[in-house]
Amino acid sequence: MSKDFVQMFISWSGFAISVCLLFLQIKNRLTQVSSYNLSRATYRSSTIVLKLVHVEQLEGSVLMKLVIFNPGSVAAVIQSCSVFEKPKSKNWFLRIFTSKWQRVERSSWWPIKDGSDNEPKYLADAYQELYVKDVRSIYVSMPGMTDRRTYMFEVRTNNGYVTTETSVMEGATYFSHHFEEWHGD
Q1: Going by C-beta distance under 8 Å and a sequence separation of 6 or more, which residues neighbour residue 143?
Q2: Fewer CB in a 10 Å sphere around the end CB: N or C, the chain?
Q3: Where are the transmembrane segments (predicted)?
């Protein structure tokens, strides 16, 4: 065998191995993308959902009933619930620009087992209700009157947090006519 033949054989063998590895890498990349898309879809389908279902005007305060749906197989523990509002500005020019959400400091919340008990509770009284397997109702009490402004509710759990923006009007809430969900990928 000549020296040129050995050199040519080694170079063509290296080229063939490189082409095979390139095809394997492309196949593995497609498998990884499919796996990522599957895990992302699973995560999104098991994300906690928060809905405002009822608002009631009491003496000097507003009582709102929120419902947390946990469609995932992993249970959640409620850590906190906050209410945010956008500050009202009397200046029309400042209302054009978006303002930051401010927390309603005097609001209080408590989880409930049945919908008829709307008396405020303390942590020692209702700590078992923090555990969310499927569905859990939460009462939120906020000082003031129902004013049809938009509020943001934020519930933090051990699995993350969920927010919802809605206007607060007295009475029962109707079913939605349109739903849109956006995921920043």
Answers
A1: 60, 61, 62, 104, 106, 107
A2: C
A3: 6-24
Phi, psi of 22 (to 5 degrees): -65, -45
Domain that holds residue 109: 49-172
Q: Helix, strand, or coil here: 98?
A: coil
Distance of CA 11 to the CA centre of its chain: 55
pLDDT digit string (tens) for 46-101?
Answer: 788 899 988 888 888 999 999 999 888 888 899 999 999 887 777 777 777 777 88
Based on the fold, state whether residues 107 and 40 are members of the same structural domain.
Answer: no
Whether residues 81 and 141 share a domain: the answer is yes
- Tokens standing for 17? 């191995």
Q: Note the pTM of the prediction, 2 decimals.
A: 0.72
Picking from 56, 55, 48, 54, the residue whose alpha carbon sits closest to that of residue 135 is: 48
Could you tell me if residue 179 is inside a domain?
A: no
Integer Cα distance of 126 and 113 in angstroms: 9
Report DSSP state, residue 86. P
CA–chain centroid gap for 86, Å, is 20
pLDDT, one tens digit per residue, over 19-36 is 999 999 999 998 999 999
Q: Across-strand partners of 66?
A: 52, 138
Identify whether the C-beta of residue 135 lies closer than 8 Å to the C-beta of residue 69.
yes
Measured between its terminal Cα atoms, the distance across the chain in Å is: 58
Q: Residues 61, 143: contact at Cβ < 8 Å?
A: yes
Same domain, residue pair 71 and 118: yes
